[in-house]
Amino acid sequence: MKRGLLLIDRGSKEREAAEELEIICKAVKTKGSYDFAEYCFLEVTLPYIDDGIQKCLKSNIDSLTIVPYFLYPGKKVKAAVTEVMKYQATTNVKFLVTKPMSMHMTLVRLVESRIKSALDKGGVSLTNDKIDVLVIGHGSKDPNAKMSIKYVTDELGHLYRNVDYCFLEIEEPNIEQGIEACKKRDPEVLVVVFYFLHEGAHVKTDINADLRPALEKHKLKKVLITQHIGTDQKMIDLIIERAQEVET
């Protein structure tokens, strides 16, 4: 049986997002033994869902595993799934839809590795019980989004002196409030985690537009910033694991 896989991403105009998705799809195709692996976007830019579905169906596959590539459950995921399932009635290819990339220990381990890399790069040799962490997420009107990021920070809370979260937009605490709360705890080192899938506009410009003024205002002792999630091998493995959950 010929198997295909389609990642549905929210969408970004930044070329880095598409480049990362190309790398991810190539790795998933090889490691997951798929005959075809491609990506598309829910919004913002091409290829849209219709483009992705049509390309997949032309590849002569028997089943298509559809992966909502989102860090949070919510309206965007529901919209992506609703849109893609419209095509099921038009084909004999069997559609399988996975859970999004949320509420999973792999994300906790991935963030932990990003924190460790930032500490190593910054030359910090303190034990974890002297390290504070602030995870910056996107923000959403859907309450499940906050539950998802809280899952990660709660699990990390067992490893570091203090772990909290804030949001770039839509909901509070915002970035300035998050940094202010960290300042009150007077950390020796604060590691700021960019909890975003891609190096899009949010990571490249939007976060820093709020983060830099907040850091200048509150003047913490030492602040390190992690890389975004990107093409980490742990995410490749999580995509394949999510796919296998529905394929079996």
TrEMBL record:
Residue stretches spanning the membrane: none
Keyword field: Lyase, Metal-binding
Gene Ontology MF: a single term: lyase activity
Pfam families per the UniProt record, alphabetical: CbiX
Taxonomic superkingdom: Archaea
UniProt xrefs under PANTHER family: SIROHYDROCHLORIN FERROCHELATASE, CHLOROPLASTIC
Protein name per Swiss-Prot or TrEMBL: Cobalamin (Vitamin B12) biosynthesis CbiX protein
Organism: Nitrosotalea devaniterrae
